[in-house]
Design a protein that fits this description.
With about 250 residues, this protein is of the alpha/beta class. It has ten helices and eight strands. The structure holds adenosine-5'-triphosphate and magnesium ion. The site of magnesium ion (MG) has 4 residues, from α1.
Length: about 250
């Protein structure tokens, strides 16, 4: 059974950044094979990993409404298409969910997808899901439980309270969350004692275990601006070191 790691948090807090660092972590630690799922309709995880996506699950779901090739059931077709859509890289595959169903959704397609995901999941040691702020893709993929939920927040008391509410959103989805933590991202470096005390206070009130603080990093920004993969970042980069230490503790 694969271990499922999901990222959540409000817009722009660093979910995709941390997802890319997680792919780097899992592949470097040889905790492979990994399936990285970009569940943001505005797919961009691929960019941080230096990959190009040609087909999204949303596009396949649409095709499923049309005629099937002869001698193929819709499930077989879905399975074949999903396999074709995977971007294969060293130690991991990338899948992009693409656009969710608009009005007039062909909901049976989601059942085909859920079944396909069930089969596909068995091929991996870890499945990593980079979400957009909403978590509907999680239910769509038929994930019944999440082993590790990472909620990301900006370094403010209000941000941390929002993260807490987002962590609670998994309840109504009937998805069991086995372990969760908060990562406070883009913490100014060096962080003054006042800010650290504020963060600590908010974390205690939020009742969400603190995974760690990730510094604001010029190296991460520079890498993204240059269009370079995070997989190429060296282990000496402070943000990488700190992220790996957080993952070591949380995923152990
Ligand atoms: N630790 C960091 N240091 C510096 N910049 C960062 C850091 N984390 C994230 N960023 C920058 O912040 C921006 C938003 O990050 P990211 O795309 O990871 O957020 P997100 O939560 O995935 O956003 P969305 O909700 O749009 O999917 C990016 O330009 C990213 O480079
Ligand atoms: Mg994102």
């Amino acid at each position: 059974m694969p271990k499922i790691i999901a990222l959540a948090g409000k817009g722009g807090v660093g979910k995709t950044t941390i997802s890319a660092l997680l792919v780097k972590y899992l592949t470097e630690r040889q905790l492979t094979p990994v399936l990285a799922v970009d569940a943001d309709s505005n797919a961009n995880l691929n960019e941080l990993l230096g990959l190009t996506v040609s087909t999204t699950i949303g596009q396949i779901r649409k095709e499923l409404k049309g005629d099937m090739p002869p001698n193929m059931t819709r499930d077989q077709y879905m399975e074949m298409k999903v396999h074709q859509s995977l971007v294969e890289a060293s130690g991991f595959d990338l899948m992009a969910m693409g656009q969710p169903d608009g009005p007039g959704c062909y909901c049976a397609a989601n059942q085909h997808l859920a079944m396909t995901m069930d089969h596909l999941a068995d091929n991996y040691k870890y499945i990593l899901v980079d979400n957009e702020a909403g978590m509907e893709h999680l239910s769509r993929m038929n994930l019944r439980s999440i082993d590790y939920l990472i909620v990301v927040s900006d370094p403010s008391a209000r941000g941390i309270m929002t993260a807490r509410r987002i962590a609670e959103l998994t309840g109504p989805l009937a998805i069991e969350v086995k372990k969760k933590c908060l990562i406070v991202n883009r913490v100014p470096e060096p962080a003054g004692p006042e800010l650290l005390a504020k963060i600590q206070e908010a974390v205690e009130a939020a009742d969400l275990p603190l995974g760690g603080l990730l510094p604001a990093s010029n190296e991460l920004v520079g890498q993204e601006l240059a269009g370079r993969s995070y997989l190429e970042l060296g282990g000496e980069v402070e943000a990488v070191r700190r992220a790996f230490a957080i993952f070591d503790a949380f995923l152990s």
